[in-house]
Predict the 3D structure of the following.
Amino acid sequence: MKIIVTKDYESLSLRACQLIEEEVERRPDAVLGLATGSTPLGTYKQMIRSYKHGRTDYQHVTTFNLDEYVGLTGDHPQSYRFFMEEQLFKYLNVPSNHTYIPNGTADDMEEECERYERLIDEIGPPDLQLLGIGQNGHIGFNEPGTPFDSETHLIKLAESTRKANARFFDTLEDVPTRAITMGIRSILKSKRILLLASGERKAEAIYRLLNEVVDEKFPASSLNRHADVTLIVDEKAYHKVEETGGNRSVE
Ligand code: GLP
């Protein structure tokens, strides 16, 4: 795993944006894997800013998102479809029929999982997959214990994840209990992975990622089995590794 430690969240976001833009410049029809949560927001802001200056053209790009809450329609303000439209898609020229996100209100969820995985295989896999990390090491919505050979599937959200995400909802009860997520194997199909982590609340997860054995109890540890992962982490999220002697080069 390649590690880039940045001074703060802003430089982390700039660096991630640069790497995504380089990918699209190299490959104008790139398939990008995208993520939600608060961590990629700065990256998306930088992409939008840069797009406004005419730097990157997304007209041939396709995107796949990792996950979606079950039961929320795309126009629900807390759905990940809505998040992506508001935080990124509406500002770029990526064609709307090239933006894939699992359908959280499909009649047949099992069929939806299969359909999504097929799309990833047929159109993807992503050339570059952007990832955040949950405090319990989840990636996408793959909670601890998810088999490493999982593909797109339905999951029950861990209570800790519902609590962590409750800040986006009016009350904890409003946070859906289930989600549809790309599995660990689906994520590892990506050619290259960009993992972002920022702030003190991720320090423990980053320490575990870099120090623990690869184990299904800590889903992000599966990334150690991928040949091309870049971790971009800010000083606050890296401090525990550093205190225990991690190497680094600050950008
Ligand atoms: C959410 C998402 C993940 C995200 C993670 C971290 O539950 N499903 O894709 O990476 O939690 O979120 P944040 O970036 O807000 O800390």
In short: The chain is about 35% helix and 15% strand.
